Amino acid sequence: HESIKSQRENSRCTDRISESKIKVTRKRGSIENLPQMEVSMDKKEYLKQHRLLNRIIELDLEELKRIRELSVSVSSIAFDRDYVQTTRNTRAPFEKWLDKINILEIKIANEVNLFMDLKLQILETIEQLESIDEKLVLNYRYVKGLEWDEICSLLFASERTIYRWHGNALAKLKLPENPINIKSCQLMAVDGSDCQ
Fold first, then answer.
1. What integer pLDDT is reported at residue 183 of this predicted model?
2. DSSP string, 106-126
């Protein structure tokens, strides 16, 4: 009896997984199917990517600011140590910082492009819902990043009603055919190809 039950659960899980499999790749702003990569993602994960990617960009901008400050600072010589240099370094000390700045700027540009594509795709996905209240709840929560109490005050509804609209919206929401998945993207790519 237990083996039949476990077989049923396994087949249900397999069905759910196969329904939610996603194939993603990005090349120069276009999204294409990539048969060898499959990443599963649920609706909440898909919607939460917007805020996550925004935070990644903010952290990279802070790092860029820090590196720029280091690139213009003057390093001092430590007179308490003897240096024996076998080969002379012909590069100026600030050149390594300029290289890092260049790489990080390209990474941020790729992330911003991906962010804009993702935001547009999420807004189009939310717009397909029929209920205005459900659209607003998803938009306020996942695109604008508001807390539940802020959404309640904006929509003049109780928290329980907001949760109900949110649950209904997620149940009705249909993910795009080729949703962008930032977890499968290599945001560090410098050559312009964000996802593999």
1. 81
2. HHHHHHHHHHHHHHHHHHHHH
Provide DSSP, 56-107: HHHHHHHHHHHHHHHHHSPPPP-TTS----SS---S-TTHHHHHHHHHHHHH
Mean pLDDT (whole number) for 122-128? 96
Both tokens assigned to 137: 């709840």
Output the six-digit token pair for 44. 């909440």
| Axis-axis angle for helices 148-155, 159-172 (nearest 10) | 100
> Tens digit of pLDDT for each residue in 144-175?
999 999 999 999 999 999 999 999 999 999 99
Whether the pTM exceeds 0.70: the reply is: no
Residue whose token pair is 């996802």: 195
For 128, the 3-state DSSP assignment is: coil
Cα separation of 142 and 138, whole Å?
Answer: 6
Percentages (nearest 5) of helix, strand, coil residues in the chain? 60, 5, 35
Dmax of the chain from CA atoms? Answer: 79
Which residues is 30 bridged to in the sheet?
27
Q: How many CB atoms lie within 10 A of CB 100?
A: 16
Radius of gyration of the chain from Cα atoms?
Answer: 24
> What pLDDT sits at residue 97?
81
- Residue 46's pLDDT is 94
Amino acid type, 58 = E
166 in Cβ contact with 7 (< 8 Å): no
